């Protein structure tokens, strides 16, 4: 764009310069030819008075030396008849009928015609007419256009080189900004403002982006604090309600009261799970979700979780595949159970009744891989990268099926803090969620404050 604009500006500039120069040249030429015509008309006045054609022709013949660019000169008497004529020897012939005798000066492509009166007013004796060859003007035009062309080409090359050296600087900063925006959108990490010392528009854009990040960070912080406080405040009365309901469930044996207490307990259980998720998210955000690492048998945990789930959802068939031969692995048993429950509850929640859910375990030298496979509604390809984000729910599921979009976010945090990986794959029918756990305790199994930067594979 810069090169293109420079070329247009230069072309306009040079054209204006050349045309002004040519106009000045023509004005100068007209002036000098008019003064020659005037000298001739003054000298020729007496030759007309004395009918001395030879003297008039002699005056005109002097032009050969004084003004060689004049190719033809005529002296006419007052009746318009030729009194004397001069034609430059060797000059190209031209049609004399084209000479505009009635104009003071007149340009054609190749000639300038100039006329001057001999005598004046009532004493008009005749006219002098000069035809001037403009070969010099052609040469001037040619050389000016050549110089302009060379200068334009040189200017284009220079501006191209300059823009080529400036371009990477501009593009680099813009790409840096775009990459950061993509990264921030992906990770939700607003803690790294962009550094830029420029004073141009890109710098203004970067500063505006930094301010925006700062504001979003502030409002995220306030939101997280609110969620933390609100969940905490809700948890205490709810725990006591649950305690009383548990007691009532044992004491009350009359129907339908007993059944009502049971329904109230189920709803309380759902509310407690919701509040626990919100509290977990709040802890993750503030970096306080701690792991309690011990050795535990994974197979046992899978079997326990499956059997309690099978009771809760008898319409699905939950199957275990693979044998871990009593393998004990290091990890936080309760948190891994939370991951399994979450993946199983999603598998059941997003699958129609009478379908299977398969939990399989595979062991390699360094790690253990768990797969939870369902034959349900599946996940759209364009949303697969987002489902581990906080509060994200796929467009299809969010309308019909209850949920907050927190479960997978918490699972991801737990697994990444065990130095494992978690991801999902689309299947022909349904989807498969995978997570891995290292078989040996890593000295760095501690809470990572910024989980978003850890290696998530999707
Ligand atoms: P939610 O409480 O909404 O289930 P999650 O974080 O567990 O929250 O899941 C996030 C979103 O991922 C869900 O809303 C759903 O759209 C999608 N999802 C998770 N598991 C499955 C699954 N097994 N099949 C289809 N979609 C799933």
Task: Give a quick summary of the entry.
This protein is α+β, with helices and mostly antiparallel strands.
Main attributes of the structure:
single chain; 5-stranded mixed β-sheet; alpha+beta; 5-stranded antiparallel β-sheet; 12 strands; 458 residues; binds adenosine-5'-diphosphate
Secondary-structure map with pairings?
Blueprint: H1 2-49, H2 53-61, H3 63-66, E1 70-77, E2 82-87, E3 105-107, E4 111-118, E5 126-133, H4 135-187, H5 201-251, H6 257-285, E6 294-297, H7 298-312, E7 317-321, E8 328-331, H8 333-349, E9 356-363, E10 367-374, H9 395-400, H10 407-417, E11 422-426, E12 431-438
Parallel strand pairs: 7-9
Antiparallel strand pairs: 1-2, 1-5, 3-4, 4-5, 6-8, 9-10, 10-12, 11-12
Can you give a write-up of this model?
With 458 residues, the protein is of the alpha+beta class. 53% of the residues lie in helices and 16% in strands. It is built from ten helices and twelve strands. It has helices at residues 2-49, 53-61, 63-66, 135-187, 201-251, 257-285, 298-312, 333-349, 395-400, 407-417; strands spanning 70-77, 82-87, 105-107, 111-118, 126-133, 294-297, 317-321, 328-331, 356-363, 367-374, 422-426, 431-438. The protein has a five-stranded antiparallel sheet. A five-stranded mixed sheet has the order 7-9-10-12-11. It is rod-shaped. The protein starts with a helix and ends in a 20-residue tail after the last strand. Mean pLDDT is 86; it is low at 446-458. Bound molecules: adenosine-5'-diphosphate (ADP). The site of adenosine-5'-diphosphate has 22 residues, from helix 8 and helix 10. Adenosine-5'-diphosphate binds at residues 342, 346-347, 350, 374, 376-379, 387, 392-394, 397, 403-409, 431.
């Amino acid at each position: 764009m810069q090169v293109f604009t420079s070329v247009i500006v230069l072309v306009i500039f040079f054209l204006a310069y050349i045309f002004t120069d040519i106009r000045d040249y023509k004005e100068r030429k007209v002036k000098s030819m008019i003064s020659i015509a005037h000298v001739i008309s003054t000298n020729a006045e007496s030759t007309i008075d004395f009918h001395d054609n030879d003297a008039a022709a002699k005056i005109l013949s002097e032009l050969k030396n004084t003004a060689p660019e004049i190719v033809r000169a005529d002296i006419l008497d007052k009746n318009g008849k030729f009194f004397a004529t001069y034609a430059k020897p060797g000059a190209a012939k031209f049609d004399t009928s084209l000479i505009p005798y009635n104009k003071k000066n007149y340009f054609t492509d190749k000639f300038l015609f100039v006329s001057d009166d001999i005598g004046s007013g009532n004493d008009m004796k005749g006219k002098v007419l000069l035809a001037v060859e403009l070969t010099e003007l052609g040469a001037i035009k040619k050389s000016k256009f050549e110089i302009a062309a060379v200068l334009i080409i040189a200017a284009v090359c220079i501006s191209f080189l300059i823009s080529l050296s400036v371009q990477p600087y501009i593009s680099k900063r813009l790409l840096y900004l775009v990459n950061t925006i993509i990264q921030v959108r992906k990770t939700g990490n607003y803690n790294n403002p962009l550094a830029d010392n420029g004073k141009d528009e890109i710098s203004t854009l970067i500063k505006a982006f930094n301010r925006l990040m700062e504001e979003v960070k502030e409002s995220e912080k306030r939101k997280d604090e609110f969620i933390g406080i609100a969940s905490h405040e809700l948890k205490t009365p709810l725990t006591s309600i649950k305690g009383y309901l548990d007691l009532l469930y044992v004491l009350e044996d009359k129907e339908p009261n007993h059944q009502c207490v049971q329904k109230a307990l189920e709803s309380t259980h759902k509310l407690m799970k919701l509040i626990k998720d919100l509290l977990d998210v709040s802890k993750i955000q503030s970096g306080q979700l701690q792991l309690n690492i011990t050795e535990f048998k994974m197979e046992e945990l899978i079997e326990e979780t499956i059997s309690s789930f099978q009771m809760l959802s008898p319409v699905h068939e939950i199957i275990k595949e693979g044998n871990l031969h009593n393998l004990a692995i290091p990890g936080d048993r309760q948190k891994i159970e939370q991951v399994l429950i979450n993946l199983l509850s999603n598998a059941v929640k997003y699958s129609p009744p009478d379908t299977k859910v398969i939990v399989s375990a595979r062991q390699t030298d360094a790690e253990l891989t768990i797969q939870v496979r369902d034959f349900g509604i599946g996940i759209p390809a364009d949303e697969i990268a987002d489902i581990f984000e906080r509060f994200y729910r796929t467009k299809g599921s969010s309308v019909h099926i209850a949920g907050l979009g927190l479960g997978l976010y918490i699972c991801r945090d737990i697994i990444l803090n065990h130095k494992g990986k978690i991801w999902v794959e689309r299947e022909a029918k349904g989807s498969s969620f995978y997570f891995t756990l290292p078989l040996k305790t890593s000295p760095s199994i501690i809470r990572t404050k910024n989980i978003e930067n850890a290696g998530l594979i999707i």
